[in-house]
């Protein structure tokens, strides 16, 4: 059930009306029922995988609360084992086929909706209970709602039990301000998805799917993918946050103007924020505090000096984290290289921090120098877009070939999606251009500290209603109806 389908809008209406009409003590059951219906719509058998993840972490947490390590290890091995089999079997088989005489058939499984997201979220809950950050939930239906809450189930944001579960338990009073904010957030998300992302997808698919003949258009393809990915992912998150907002539940923000980042580290603090925070808390810190990392830290300071020795272990930890991020994105080599590319740049940047600081001091440059800020923003944008070659391509070879060919001819063509129909091409390109200009203006205001959502939702009701109707009309007229679902729908 796509966020842009009519049936999903019916589900939103039922959710919002039913939540406030039924007795408060039954509301969590109502939300759970809607979440189950939503998930079954994507494939009834997939519900079994979600229930398995929920049951293993629920019972595991009940025992882990008593300090039993096995109660943490067993559910994690089971849940990530299921994820590995479903998602990474093709990669494992391809590796085995490199052995002499091996010729195993490649098996691909249909991925349940949002399996990476709910596996990560339920694993985070289990670890939080074990580390004493929250109490184990005694009611399985309440815990299942935390895992399966339908707005965030498909693509996040990845919720923390300590902040999300209490909101799901609480009976929120009707508040027209929440309805106004939620509706606007949903409309804004649909605008980004349908008007910008889905039109950009035409260019992305054409260039990446036929890269051998469209040799020099790699830069156009990757820039369009940069637009598509951000508008698609953040638009879906906006819809999820908007639905939850209407019933008084505040999900975590997942994006904060990422293309204004001035370093790659800053970019990852702004992009898919809940995943980054989860990787930091559940992987980076445990690695950094481990015994082997302590020994590496002592060795590096002794052998490499104080400055580099301090940064070297952090760089190793970042490489591990981004290797996991690459694997998490998919069971293909280009995703692994994509993760390592990000990790390596961040690790090397950490090693050179002192050198950069001395270099800037000698030139009289500070991080507040305007032109230097603009340079760092542009540099980071280029670095990120190079990584998008690896993220979108079907192989490492394709990514490198497209990058190399991008400098061997014309780099842009509005008419690439259909050279025989300039009007058709313009009808898709202009919405992208206009939509990006609107999003850029809003992003600048937000970067300067303006609460745009608060300002818009406080407009007179008739103005807000007219604006929402206008967005829906624009999305219906200028949206590309051939694209369909979200990029991260089956992730």
Kindly state the mean pLDDT as a whole number?
90
How much helical structure, as a percent, in the residues?
Answer: over 70%
Q: What structural category characterises the helix and strand content?
A: mainly alpha
N-to-C CA distance? 15 Å
Low-confidence stretches: none
Molecular shape: globular
In total, how many domains does the architecture comprise? 3
State the helix count. 21
- Beta-strand segment tally: 0
Output the radius of gyration. Answer: 24 Å
List the helices and strands and how they pair.
Elements: H1 6-21, H2 27-41, H3 46-64, H4 70-96, H5 115-130, H6 140-148, H7 150-153, H8 161-169, H9 176-209, H10 218-246, H11 264-270, H12 273-288, H13 291-304, H14 306-329, H15 333-351, H16 353-363, H17 370-392, H18 396-405, H19 422-447, H20 452-457, H21 461-478
Helix pairs in contact: 1-2, 2-6, 3-4, 3-5, 3-6, 4-5, 6-8, 9-10, 9-19, 9-21, 10-17, 12-14, 13-14, 14-15, 15-17, 17-18
